[in-house]
What we know:
- By secondary structure, this protein is an alpha+beta fold.
- The protein has helices at about 1-15, 40-45, 70-85, 95-105, 110-115, 130-140, 170-175, 185-195; strands at about 20-25, 50-55, 60-65, 90-95, 120-125, 145-150, 155-160, 180-185.
- It contains eight helices and eight strands.
Amino acid sequence: MSSQRSRAWSVAKAPTPVGPRLVAFLRAINVGGHVVKMDVLRELFTGLGLTDVETFIASGNVLFRWGSDDRPALERKLEARLREALGYEVKTFVRTEAEVAAIARYRPFPEPEIESARAFSVGFLAERPTPAARMLVLAQKTDVDTFHVNGREVYWLCRVGQSDSEFSNVRFEKKVGLSVTFRGLKTITRLVAKYGT
């Protein structure tokens, strides 16, 4: 009987999901010799009072709910907690589930070009680039790589394997002066399909 009461109490005290579902895209969470287990990542997010926390594959995609609209403040809060817990900087880019669904649907290039490309990725920025920064992004275009900017996202179409391209996350940040994290469009589409965002 006591164990039944204990179980009932734990269920009653479980945090109730609040607010819209959000997705945090983390930069370089599991690269460069860093390894973070997904259960540890979920605990870090839950410890900040976020609810309904889930992770999607090991590239740093965390879904959760939060009861406030101040996403820039949330991004700073998450970055501070991750730095404290992991010992290195993890830039964090938060989007609503509706924004992620729109990103998955958006087609900045003709469909035949997308289908023939070896890779099609989306880069998440913290804010809309200025006109000058936008021009710097588009100036990265080569015979291999093409770019498009829409809102706070950069779309990268690569006609060869990404490892064969001279373009990279580091090069983008050095040339443009903005932090970014890239995800393959297939990953984003799978995320939307799984969670119904």
